[in-house]
Amino acid sequence: MPIPKYFQMYNSFLRSLSDGQKHAFSDTKNQVIRDFNLSEADLAELLPSGRQSVFTNRIGWCRTYLKKAGLIESPSRAHFIITDAGKRILDTVDEITNDTLRQFPSFVEFVDGEAGDGQVSPSVQNDETPQETLERVYGELNNVLKDELLTRIHQSPSEFFERFVVRLMEKMGYGRGEVTQRTRDAGIDGIMYQDKLGFDRIYIQAKRKDLNTTVGRPDLQRFWGAIPERNTRGLFVTTAKFSPDAKQFAEEKHIILIDG
Description:
By secondary structure, the chain is an alpha/beta fold. Helix content is 45%, strand content 15%. Strand 2 and strand 3 (79-82) form a beta hairpin. The protein is elongated and about 80 Å long.
């Protein structure tokens, strides 16, 4: 089943402490897992960054918000106990939400402290944890940035794109780069020298094409034919996309493809 939102765990979290005894955080997590019938696949689901599971992130913020509201306390590391306020809320409120927690000044101060002017922090205006919001916004900004970069590259001369790709390869640590002379490149736009003597090379083709066009197999074949050494590496970069035939040819010849 879908992993519950952090605020949907409030009731389950408090119920796991309802006996008034101190419980390990791991016990509380196991209780929430049972209450929501979460599977191993559910628990393995990761945030977009891949650095933390969705469940771990959400139950972590559930714990943080309950603690900031004063409904639970932590008498020792990774152990929790319900407070009198927590017992009262659990006994009198059917569904505990962020609105329920807002009756406690300590919670309001924590979530709205940086908002100012009486505004409610965005972290409690939606159903995301702050980490989920951060990763979503980061992804959206990345997409906008990628679109802007592609647009600006496409508006620049083709020579700029060739220099750009070679310079990028240098910055990524692939060695010393060289943009070939256009009248003599024979289909090779740049060369990366991965060792000081130039024995180990990567040959580069940089095609700045319309964003909605396709690079086909013939383009890859011409590039392959221009590479002077068979036992070497080729990199084909384009602002467009590759056709299935082009991808198949590149796989056969061990050419690395990077599209828009």
